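Look over both lines before class:
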Amino acid sequence: MHFLYFCDAMKVLTGLDIISRRMPSFLEGKRLGILCHAASINSDFIPVTEIFSKNSKCIIGAVFGPQHGLFGQTQDNMIEWEGDQTSSIPVYSLYGQHRKPTSSMLKGIEAFVVDLQDVGARLYTYIWTVKLCMEACSEAGIPVYILDRPNPVAAIQADGPVLKKEYFTFVGGAEIPLCHRMTIGEMALWIRTFHVTSCELHIVAMEGWNRSLMFRDTGLPWVLPSPNMPTQETAVVYPGTVLFEAMNISEGRGTVIPFELFGAPFLNTTAILKELKTMNPQGCAFRQHDFIPTFNKYGGGYCHGIQIHVTDHRTYKPVETMLYILSSIRHTSPDNALRFNPPPYEYEYKLMPFDILSGDNHMREVIENNLSLEEEKNRWREEISEFRKIFKELSLYNEC
């Protein structure tokens, strides 16, 4: 296993920026498979595939795309897309008929390059596509190279439950917190250490990045990594409000600020705002903002809604805030109005969607049964403390 560091004058260099300036010898002359998407660009907005294709010493054997397609063209969960094997360079979907590369897809590939922008929430599926690629490459004897990128919300404190093994699915395949502060390279290293131990993994580490930086501090261009992640502000609230996907509450899909807005026809926003003021979640403010989503839940219908405004990312805890929001909705809504959706969700047909997103069934039971929020938060703190002890030994970047 190798960690590859380079130096440059820019404030932050991604792994792709580094190899754009100086293609490493270990990739030259190799037939490459590249897992990428729309956000796989360098600081000059040049896509990873163009960078490799213009290098005369590199050969692209195949291109692979994750959920939402190479260009973010598929909108929602479980909306599959298929690749194109008729072009000069085959394009394979890993969110269609196959989620793990087959031996035929990897035929002739000598090195597998990953360049994906993660958003700092454990349930974002891209890293679990990487895990499946690591498994396939390990079986085929192909080394994997991760071109590392920032966790855009790394400065936010780790938050939420740690995923339990019995809840491993395509939205989570490692025992890490919901809001985890890791880069995609560090998550791959965790997977290599505890799950796919036979994978030959190499990480092209970033230059100039540390965990005190939000994405806006990096100087890097933001390209939405998925259709409903339009801005950096979306990524800040996402680790908490994404849990609405597993409920009968709109998470704001069908509006221009998904995940910053939430609502439903039955919400009593005045009562919710009053209760949230009493609970006093840190680092944020709430404001009534009704909306009519153009698609997804309640499409075309009137939703009584609330917008979250993050005022201080240093104190904001997205999952803890979500716990307060859900408790407030539960207390102020008509009996049985708030519901947790049944399966299926992201190819899981037995476990409750909320449980596989949150990490286990405890958070849901706290809301359903009006149990102690403080005890639930203390449980998370203990789990995160144990996680940190392990992650400290694997971390590639400073905490400052």
